[in-house]
Amino acid sequence: MQIVLISGLSGSGKSVALKVLEDAGYYAVDNLPASLLAKLAAELRRLGYERVAVAVDVRSGVNIEALPQKVEHLRKTVGDLRVIFLEARDDTLIARFSETRRRHPLASDEVSLEEAIQKERDALESIAALGHRIDTSDLQANTLRAWIKDFMQIEATAGLTLMFQSFGFKYGIPLDADLVFDVRCLPNPHYDPLLRPFTGKDQPVIDFLENLPEVDQMYEDIRRFIATWLPSYARDNRSYLTVAIGCTGGQHRSVYLAEKLGQHFAASVRVLVRHRSAARRQVDHGARPADQ
Predict the structure, then answer these.
(1) Which of 8, 50, 274, 291 is the most buried (most CB within 10 A)?
(2) Which strands sit side by side in the sheet containing 27-29, from one edge to the other?
(3) Which residues form the RapZ-like N-terminal domain (predicted)?
(4) pTM of the predicted model over 0.90
(5) Is 128 buried (19+), middle (13-18) or exposed (0-12) by CB count in 10 A?
(6) What is the pLDDT of residues 64-93, one digit of tens each?
(7) Rg of the Cα trace of the chain?
(8) What is the pLDDT of residue 65?
(9) Which of 73, 55, 53 minimizes the C-alpha distance to 124?
């Protein structure tokens, strides 16, 4: 079992770090009292969770003083325990609280923001030495996300879902498409009366298209482009990347390529495959939907 403990100063980016891990598949818990850390670990282990991310900070109140002891105990019982401590300069924290108009958890009518920040530093001093410290003073949120991923060795595409969507240009380009590939230049099975009733998911059409060198070349070009640029899209912290592949009617060529590309990338990233126009055409003609 792996537990990642996130702590640090309010306004330093803890919620950003926790979200990165949650998107990567970690069971995420925010604002957990330090006294419950061992119980949480035991319960989640019993339930079969392998990766857990927990944010513990000054919001725990007096419980935070017990965190170093709890961490040392967990290190003996958990296979992999990592601590990330986020901090920032006072001027940066003051600016962030001013921009968001959020209230510091230790601030009050009697305690100014500057005093609250110093009080929090003092309370968390022993925790800062427990693990990896990151100064987020000059970091944008995207940069912090990338640093967390690097530290945890999270694959760049771990939090991204790649959707391949076939469509017919005669019905219009999908509004949700991020990338659009036009495959109308490939030979069209529609002109073969025996193939016309089928879709790119049916074996007769698959056999026809697989025997055409230009279809394989188109597949390789699209596959190579996506493989090259997918990590860059993932670093932009996208949740989805929709790749639309269009032919004239959206029934044969685009469906075949969307299916084949989906099968290839499913080995390395979460993949969805959808067929817009093929389903529409089959329903319009009273036949079975192509996407079932």
Answers:
(1) 8
(2) 27-29, 51-55, 2-8, 80-87, 132-135
(3) 1-153
(4) no
(5) middle
(6) 887 888 888 888 888 788 889 999 999 999
(7) 26
(8) 80
(9) 55
Q: What percent of the chain has pLDDT over 90?
A: 53
User: Where are the strands (E) in 16-160, listed by range?
Assistant: 27-29, 51-55, 80-87, 132-135
Residue numbers in the known binding site are 8-15, 57-60
Could you list the residues known to form a binding site for ATP, using ranges: 8-15
DSSP helix/strand/coil, 132: strand
What number is the average pLDDT over the span 38-64? 88
Structure tokens at 45: 């282990």
Annotated binding site for GTP: 57-60
Give the pair of three-digit tokens for residue 90.
């006072």
The predicted-structure confidence for 91-103, as pLDDT tens digits, reads as follows 999 999 988 888 8
- Structure token pair of residue 243: 């790749």
- How would residue 237 be classed by pLDDT, with cut points 50, 70 and 90? low
pLDDT above 50: residue 290:
no
Give ∠ CA 212-214-217 in degrees, rounded to 5.
120
Do 258 and 219 contact (CB within 8 A), yes or no? no
